[in-house]
Amino acid sequence: MSTATPSKRQKTDVPYELIYWPSLPGRGEPIRLCFEATSTPYTDVSNRTEAGVQAVLEQISKSNLGSGSNPPPLAPPILRHGDLLLSQLPNILLYLGPRLGLAGLEDDETAIYHVNQLALTALDGLSNEVHNVHHPIATSAYYEEQKEEAKVKAKDYLETRLPKFLEYFERVLQGEASKGGEYLYAGQLTFADLVLWHCLDGVTHAFPRAMEKVRKEGMYGRVFMLYDRIKGMKEIEEYLGSERRMKYGKGIYRHYPELDIEE
Predict the structure, then answer these.
(1) How far is CA 56 from the centre of its chain?
(2) Which residue from 5, 60, 67, 65 is spatially nearest to 38, judged by alpha carbons?
(3) Measured on CA atoms in the order 140, 26, 130, 30, is the torsion positive or negative?
(4) Whole-structure pTM value
(5) 3-class SS at 251?
(6) pLDDT over 90, % of the chain
């Protein structure tokens, strides 16, 4: 039986702190979604404290050599949990998953690896590749400097790469391991579902006309039902309407009308 109720969570009185660039969903958003979906208290340091962006800059400074047990992070997102400091989004999700009850059934020792596999796949094709669309030549160059190349990249992404990943997740939801097709794995909400939701939401922001067309064609009905199911969760619905939710801007998911399909 499918359920949105996470598995039993590990109790902790140690506060969670997310350190990420202010005013952007970005790679910090799946972490926020994990906290929000499970009603787990956390502090979004750059957005909710006086530290602001300085919290990020101090961590990624060339002068930061880390501590006795924590190597310095290269880039955000960064999770601070007591004395522990972790970076890299997939690594943070691996840490949080079991603690928040978002890593599959507790008695399934391999569940977290399957959930991680699904999350990594979504990030590969529906996040990293989307960023490469508007920066196909160099991440250090402005979009305007590679605009024509971006148009070529966008056409290929929307025609070949996006359908490939949507078809894959449609198959996952049809598969036996999904246990009913409401969630990606074991019939319950995991961090992979939240990552996929974020990716679909971001792609929809970047390419609204293309995604509307894909929806109307009805080839990936299970995928979009999952999207709507998570968006309709009480906790997520409340979060999306709150000031805690950051708006899309000049991050991974950027809306350039010239890169979308024609009307």
Answers:
(1) 19
(2) 5
(3) positive
(4) 0.95
(5) coil
(6) 93
